[in-house]
Design brief:
9% strand; 6 helices; mainly alpha; three-stranded antiparallel beta sheet; extended
């Protein structure tokens, strides 16, 4: 049995992020869909909080053959694995900004420019 002081609660924004950045309307629909069985939040002054253990149990019920996830990593967006993912995404975004790929008419013009300079045909 878990100690009450060790239970992790997630806000609605954290829950939405956990499931791929779904909208608040999607959460509302999931809560209304009895067949889906999405965990009910705890309400404190009109704010909603979900127990991480309830979410992990629900996820396992959706796909019982998948290996268990580390709930602490899933709950903490600053965990080492998440920081590495964010750093890689940030690097990829910066590289894309510095080296944009030509598209449309710009790609055709770049191709013609390369050919005129003796580049690839």
């Amino acid at each position: 049995m878990l100690d009450e002081h060790l239970i992790t609660y997630l806000t609605a924004a954290q829950v939405r992020q956990r499931y791929g950045g779904v909208s608040d309307m999607a959460l509302w629909r999931w809560l209304r869909d009895e067949k889906l069985g999405f965990p009910r939040p705890l309400r404190i002054q009109s704010r909603r909080f979900w127990r991480l253990t309830d979410l992990v149990a629900w996820e396992r019920a959706q796909n019982p053959e998948s290996p268990p996830a580390d709930p602490q990593l899933a709950a903490d967006p600053t965990a080492p694995g998440r920081r590495r993912e964010r750093a890689e995404q940030s690097t990829q975004h910066a590289e894309a900004q510095l080296n944009p790929k030509p598209c449309g008419a710009g790609a055709a013009l770049a191709h013609l420019h390369d050919r005129s300079r003796g580049g690839r045909a």
